[in-house]
């Protein structure tokens, strides 16, 4: 038996949505609510909150409660790499499962691992502030 890593709810939708949310937060002075982001981005507010949870766990985003609360970046956008965003989502979605050691499973696992290594190398080189124009 070998261990295969399955990325649960991590998909391109989650990653793309998290980047769009973080870009919006980077452009905001102060806090912005999930409802306001929902209206601006055209994404359901409950999905925005779901995506924000792992980003808060990894201290990329902070939240304030109350009438004037909402979300904001926990650190400057030029210090947040796209890899950090990816890693926050992966950490939240990992599910290691045991699988049969058939040739196809082993070969595919190696290929996917190699692909992820190259993908994360590229993500490490790029920061959040590259994805939007400064106002």
Automatic annotation (TrEMBL):
SUPFAM superfamilies: Winged helix' DNA-binding domain (SSF46785). InterPro entries: Tscrpt_reg_Rrf2, WH-like_DNA-bd_sf, WH_DNA-bd_sf. One of its GO terms (molecular function) is DNA-binding transcription factor activity. One of its GO terms (cellular component) is cytosol. PROSITE patterns: HTH_RRF2_2. This is Rrf2 family protein.
